[in-house]
Each structure stands twice: as structure tokens, then as C-alpha cells.
Amino acid sequence: MRKKPEYGLLIDYEYCTGCYACQVACAQEYQWPAGMGGMKVIEVIQKLPHDKGYISYLPFPTELCILCTPRTRKGLDPACVKHCMASCMKYGRIEELAKIMADKPRMVLWVPRSGT
Amino acid sequence: MASEQKTQIKQTTTWSAGPGCHGGCGVLAHIKDGKLVKIEGDPDHPWNQGRLCSRCLAMTQYVYHPDRLTRPLKRTGNRGQGKWKEISWDEAFDLIEEKMKNIRKEFGPESVIFSMGTGRDIGPWICMLAYAFGSPNVMFSLSGLACYSPRIAAVETVQGDYCILDAGQWFPNRYDNPRYKVPECLVIWGYNIPASCPDNVFGHWIIDLMKKGTKIITIDPRLTWFSSRAKKWLKLRPGTDGALAMGFLNVIIQEGLYDRDFVEKWTNAHHLIRTDTKKLLREADMGQEGSPENFVVWDQKREEPAVWDTKELEYKSSGVKPALEGSFNIRLDDGREILCKTVWSDFCEEVGRYPVEKVAAITWVPEKDIIEAARLYAQSKPASIHWGVPIDMTPAITPTAQAITNLWCLTGNLDVPGGNVISRFAFDAVAYALPGAKGVIKLHSKEADKKRIGADRYGPLNKFIWRAQTDLTFEQIFTGEPYPIKGMWLQTCNPLAGIGLDPKRWAEALKKLDFVAVVDLFMTPTAQLADVVLPSATFLEKDGVRTWWVPMQSINKAISVEDCKPDIEINFELAKRFDPDFRWNNIHELFDEIIKPSGMTYAELQQKGWAFPPEGHPSFPYNRFEKGLLRPDGKPGFQTPSGKVELYAVLREEWGLEPLPHYEEPPFTPVSQPELFKEFPLILSTGRRSPVFFHAEHRNIPWLREIDPDPIVEIHPETAGPLGVGKGEWVWVENWLGRGKFKAKVTIEVPPWMVMVPHGWWFPEREGAEPSLYGVWESNANLLIPMGHQGKDGLGAPIKHLLCRVYKVSKEEKDHEKET
Description:
- The complex is a heterodimer of chains A (116) and B (820).
- Chain A has a single domain, classed as Alpha-Beta Plaits (2-Layer Sandwich), CATH 3.30.70.
- Helix content of chain A is 23%, strand content 30%.
- Chain A is built from four helices and five strands; from the N terminus they run βαββααβαβ.
- A three-stranded antiparallel β-sheet of chain A has the order 4-1-5.
- In chain A, β2 and β3 form a beta hairpin.
- The longest helix of chain A is centred in the N-terminal third of the chain and has 10 residues.
- Chain A is globular.
- With 820 residues, chain B is of the alpha/beta class.
- Chain B has three domains: 221 residues, 3-Layer(aba) Sandwich (Rossmann fold); 301 residues, 3-Layer(aba) Sandwich (Dimethylsulfoxide Reductase, domain 2); 146 residues, Barwin-like endoglucanases.
- Chain B is built from 28 helices and 31 strands.
- In chain B, β13 and β14 form a beta hairpin.
């Protein structure tokens, strides 16, 4: 039977500024060639009423994300979480992160492929 | 495991090439066998607390890039032919020494210009070299010096010292320090977050503050990340910031939202202005024994004039009750009676010329939004204003910056926790002459400074900004008047691709010169026109010192890369050759002298990494004007001619410029150029920042280029539709000066009446020799911007508000491109 995932990444996308530090931190950690990597930042620009708009960015863990197991085993945060300029990413056990999600809106919890 | 133990970790500070930014982040460089294998943010560093931006995280690709210059190069073909020969450092130094000494002998040292971009740590070292050579002509190469120093000079004209957003950066424990207050409201005026961290503020501190409850007002024509999340977003027409600031002042004064105590106690609001000459009344006007440096108020108690003594910073008579408002007849020395009015009356009259409906018509911001934003700012305590470079990028920069400065002064937000806090160099340790500060590195004599281009014509350049005026220097290369320009030393400077407006003319200018040396890390379009190119180093390959503003930090050498040399070492060697009296033996001796006011040696600083000035030091906040910490004489007040915050700027009066803040319509707008506007019906704004590039750098770093691969023009769907422009299509952006090719991002980030193009685009992957010059003429925003439109005080340039039209790149052009 497939092992159930235990760990994930909590993103507070209200504060993600689209600085791409997570994406490059991952590329550096694993020396991925350009075009590959465990983290991709997505941009969403939404028109709102009254001539307003809203820009969101969202770090997305790709199929290459291994949740930085070599780092977390040593007690370090994943490279993306560590360098996030807006401090809007959190690594942890899924249940713990889910509890934090109840604190405020505009959050998303990723459980990547390797969250086991 | 064994191999991991061999990795050494070296602590250092970012500044200069590498991330390219204005620095301040503490980093840990992981070094294995003398090579950088990884870089991380230093979790213990109070500036970035372990965070790090994409550009710094890409350092391994930058440092060991296959195209990195690693040996000095000497040109063997014609300029621009792309033919080079590697030479040794000794040969390079000998060649430069000979060529430059010949120019000095024949034409004088001022005939060589020392040209920098946004200098970063190179500022002091390029001054050191220029001054050792004997030239006063150090040039920040942007038209009108339109980045930061105009704002510094304008603010100092009003309040004697510069100030910045308070994000607790003066305390090691930052937001947790009990003296710190989180601003209730922050006005973000023409600034976006793209991790470029300009002006010595870590951009994401603002995110920290937002999480702690700071409400945001943004002033920006673009929908930005901040304007998405702002309580108020004022979408103003580019270049009308001065009118908006005057409108805010109007609301604040009309509604009595200003801090009357501050106005009465700390500004020159009471000083009298003569209505005949429109100048300040001086004590000397009333009697020959009076000082021309003293000002006059109307004493309501005695119903007679009283003198404000600017040496003692007190009235000459006791118990003076100065009138804040009104007009008074004053008898002059010659017996005439002259009507005078207070600065406050004059100031309010000027502000009164900007009623909200007029400001709305100028700025295109609805009246309601102007009023509500002004109230939110003025009623929040504390409140702060953080501004970006668009403020500098208009010819009327100074009156604009004055108006904004008056906002934080009148609302009592100057040098208070969470407000706009006076920023001095940490420990008052100053490396070189920046606006408002004279450093360790200086010209040998005042005499040598007399030849500095523009210093005789422009007040701020004579008083605060120790640089050659760029537009005048540029013209002088072509005219040779009043003296010929024969050589140029360019360091951290790429005017063809980045900092030069009208860049094709920059290429002509460089070709006119007898000798051009470029110091850089990679070949650039500009370097292709040099005679000699020297390979310099990233911040990881050098020792350095950084004291603006806090903390004081050392840059600690972690690695060496082939024959690359740090800028300071290149300049140090040549300075010794040019100046027989050059007084330092090695760079650490120089650093020791720079940081001497701190009581530390450079070796001690390197041990500590960083140091904060102690409480009670003039470079430590708050309320220093009350404590007598700002003036050399130790008296409470400011370092201005009157000792006060000058709502009416004495220096501006002395320079023959309008002393009060006001608005001037920029030169190329739909309002100032209605005829041109018919032909070029879109407002062109330039310089949108990228999170992964610093100005003209980083297009060659794969991890970064992947994120921002093409030069983009942002165009609104309603504008793109009728032009037949779809997402991702290539278009020409054109005006009467030239055109550039950009890829359309059809987006609501820009209003329908404006397009935005980024600056600094060239293609390091393309042919370097002319005519290509790495494709620098293809997507270069500066081809559409003229030189020579600096403001009346030599500062500012119209970079954010021009006119243009947009049309699709034709099929023929695309086919032609495929063939070539």
C-alpha cells in the first residue's frame, strides 16, 4: 500500500510578492538546469469591480519537489521556505499546518508528491 | 560525510556586483576547495534575517559564468569590431597609466571623466581614483542625476538631513524593540516590491509591517502588488506627483490636520518675506550692523520686528511671541516701509493654489480619493512615506520632493518612531562625498573642484552633490567647450544598455574620445567600445565596508576567481601611480580611516560583521532635533541656514529658484504637448523593475533569464484590442526619437492610456561586435528618451512620462529576422 503523506508546505498567498526567491533557492540547492526545478511561481492577475484589480503570486511545488528531505532530516527548513523574502511559506506536518490555515484566509496547503 | 566537513562557511555582506543591488543582506557563503558551492541568507543578520533574493541565490551561476571576464583585454581592431587580446595586469596598468597621464599633461586632469552607474560600493573607489588623478569630474551617468541624489539634496534643502522609512532598522532586535512603533499608515509613493531593495531599504520590511497592521496608501499609475492590497490606491498620471503632494497639503491645512506645535516650534513659518523683493527679510535689511544671515519675525507682544539669530538659534530679545500669520509693515535701513508677510501665510497661499478639484484635473485621481488618502495619512500616528525613483525622474524633482518632505514635517512624523527617520551614515563614518556628507576621500584642493562641470551653474551641485552634471558633460564631449573632454573611465557603468538616455549618441560620444577604459565583470555593449577592459570582482571576492545607513558592515572576501580584481584594488593601484602624495599603503588602512569615528578598526569590524551606533549617537534615532544631536554646535534644531525646517527654503532663494514647493507640468505629456499627443497617443512610462534583474545586469544568468526571458511592454486589453495586438505578440513602441521592439503583455496592470516598458535590455547571447552590440539597439527603452531636459537646478529627467505609439511588428520584419 502506498504510504500516506505526512508533510506539506503552507503558503500564505496574501503576502507572496512574486520575488522568485523560492524558485531560485531550489534551483541552487539541487543545481537544476534552467527550465527544471522543484518550485514554480504562478502569477494571477484578476480584474475587480470599480476599476480595481488584484495580483496574486503562488509558489507551486512541481513534480521535482522532494520537500528538501536532505535538509529537513538535519532540522533545516526547505531551501524555498528558508529564503522566502515575504516569510509566507511554512513547512511542517500536514495536521499542524491545517490548524494554522484556520487562522486567516488566503492560504493554501500543498502536499507534494514526496510529502511522505 | 567527510566531504561535507570540508565545506567552510564565510559570513559576509552583499553590496555591488553579484546581486547588483544596494546591498545590506548578511549572507553565508559555502566554500569548498576554494569554490563557492552555495549561498544562503544569514539567519542571525538583523537586516534580512536569513532571507535572500533570487539574484543572490543565483551567485554560483554568476561567479563561474563561462562568459565572465577573467583577464584584462586590450582592443586590437577598431572600436566596436570586437577584436581583443588578453594582456597581463601589469601591461594593463602600464597602458592606462601612459594614456591617461598623456591626456593629463596635454589637456589637464579634468579632461578625463570618471563615469559610474548606480555606484554601489564603487562610489568611493571611483572618487579615490579620479581625485588621485586630479579630476573633479566624477559623473553619475544618468541624465539629471535622476536617481536618489536629487531627493537627498531636495530633502536636505528643507530639513538639513535626509530621512527614510522607519522599519526598526536601527535596532538589532528590530520590531521587537520597545522604542519602535509600527506605522499605522504607510504611503508607498512610486515604488514596487521587486526585491531590488533600493535606497537602503530591504523592500520586504514593508511586508513585515503589513503583517503587523500597517495600512497602505499607494500612489502609482500601475496596478502593483502593493496597490492590489492598499487601503487607498491613487492611480495618478505619471509626472503629476508634485500636484498630488500639493493637493494633500491643501487638504491637511484646510482641515487643520497638521501638527501646529511642530510648525510653531521647529519650522521657519514665522519668518517674514518682503512683498517687494519676494525674498526673506534679513536683519541686515533693517540696519547695517545687522547680519544678512539672521531672519526677522513679527513679535505680537511688542508689536515690532524681532530678530532670529541663526548662530545662537534664539531670538535676540526675550519673550518674543512671533506671529504665524499676517502682513506687517517693516521699516528698512533706508527709511522705507515695506509690507512683509509670514512664510506660513505665503506657504498657505501657494498651497491654496491647489484646490482638490484642480489637483484631480491635473493628476486624473478622483477628488474623493485625494481627500480620503490625505486624511488617512494625516490622521494616522505614526505614519510614514516611502518613495521610489519616479520622484527623481521628472525635471521638477526638487519642488516635488519639497512638497512631500513638507507632508511628513507638517504631520509631525519626522524622526519619530515609525515615521520618517533621519538617516545618517552609521557612526557618521563616511567614505566619500555624497550629498550632505564629506568623507575621507576628497579632492586635494578647492581649486581643483572649480573645473567640475555644472558646479558653477547649479546650486545643489555646488552645495550637496559633488558630481559633474551629466547632461552638460555629455554635450561638452561634442562641443569641447569650455574645455575638451578626452578620456573616460567607466566603472559599473553601461550607458549604451542601461543608464544612458539617447544611447546611440552615447556610442558616438565614446567614439569621439581618445581613450576609454571599462571595468566590468562581463563584456557589455559599452565595453565593446573601449580601448581596454578590466575584469572586476563580485562582492564575494573582495573586502569592503558599508556604512549607509545602518548597521555598519564589513564585506569579507570569501573566494578568488582567476585574475579578476576587486574594483578597489584596481583603483588603488592606479591611484598610487597617478598621485605621488597618495597617502594609504593598503586598502585596510583606508578602511580603518573611514570607520575611525566608530572607535573600531577594520579588523575588529570584520570580526563582528556588523555594528549599530549606540543610543545618544547622532546616527541613532529618535527626536534628534530636540536633543541637539543634528547640528555641529549641539543646539536643538536642524542643519539648515535658519536652523529650522524650512517651508520656505533659504538655499533655493539663494540659488535663484522658487523657494516654495509647487507643481510644474513635465515637458512631454498630453497636456504640455497636445500636438505631439495626436501623433503619439499613449503615455510611455519606462523602468518597471524585474524581480530577477538589476538594471542592465543578469540577462545572462540562466536561472534568472528563465523567469523574465523577454523585454515586455505592458499594454491594457482595451488599448491592445483595436491595435490587433494579442498576448505575446511583438510590437514596436515608437516616438519621435526612436523605437524599440517589445513583447506585448496584455494586462490590466497598466491603465488604457499608458504603456510601460522595462529598461536595461540587451542580449548577451548575441553577437558583440558592431552593428549588433549584443542587440542593444533592438529593445532599448532609452532610445525613446532624450538627454538635456534636466530641471532648473540641474536635477531630474523626464524618464517616466513620455509619449509614444504602438504597432505590430510586420510579417516582413519577422521574416527578415529569421533569415539573419
